[in-house]
Amino acid sequence: MTPPDFPTPSADSDLALVERANAGDTRAFELLVIKYQRRIERLVGRMVRDVDLVQDITQETFIRAYKALHQFRGEAQFYTWLYRIAVNTAKKALMEMRRSPVISESALNAGGDEDETSGLAQELTTQETPETVLAAQEIAEAVSAAMEALPEDLRQAVTLREIEGLSYEEISQAMDCPIGTVRSRIFRAREAISARVKPLLERQSGKRW
């Protein structure tokens, strides 16, 4: 009897690149860095105000990831695994500097990255007139302020869902908590943001969050 065929990772998949990197192919890890560097930079940028730290923390994240690469087994998405390393690295840097993690305003207004950061603020208005552009800016500022005020666990959960576009299962893996907890955190975060944003929406066109 011939053994059953099992799916193998494609040559350019994250798992295949990890396997190649673990086998000594440094170019494979470079490809992973190229693929995820900008997303990690944006993630770190949401946790620290000091833009000078973003590059340092991002670089340290990939150094740590490379050293721990042999521990990645593919049970979770590579970005989910890398996300946890980035968050822990940023937290460590902030603790050393005795700072508190905060979300930066640029998280919701990152020029040139509208395709990946439009989840919260930019979907609230669709017609671009001078009035709606100003209204969208007011809404973005309100959302940013509301997210800054969230507890860290709620902020991380809603950021991963609305800005990073991760599934509930991926967020559960990234935050190391049950899916039910993820849903609860996202619901509470949305409620808090809604309380801040809804008056602006009602003033404009009767839209609801």
Describe this structure in words.
With 209 residues, the chain is an all-alpha fold. 64% of the residues lie in helices and 0% in strands. The longest helix is centred in the last third of the chain and has 26 residues. The termini are far apart. It comes from Comamonas guangdongensis.
Write down the Rg.
19 Å
* Structural shape: elongated
Main sheet makeup = none
N-to-C series of helices and strands: HHHHHHHHH
Oligomer: single chain
The count of helical stretches stands at 9
Number of strands: 0
Strand residue content: under 5%
Our measurement of the CA-to-CA distance between the termini, rounded to an integer number of angstroms, reads 59 Å
Helicity level:
55-70%
- List segments where confidence is low: pLDDT < 50 over at least 5 consecutive residues: 1-9, 99-127
Domain RNA polymerase sigma factor 70 region 4 type: 141-192
Protein name: RNA polymerase sigma factor
Pfam family, one: Sigma70_r2
Keywords: DNA-binding, Sigma factor, Transcription, Transcription regulation
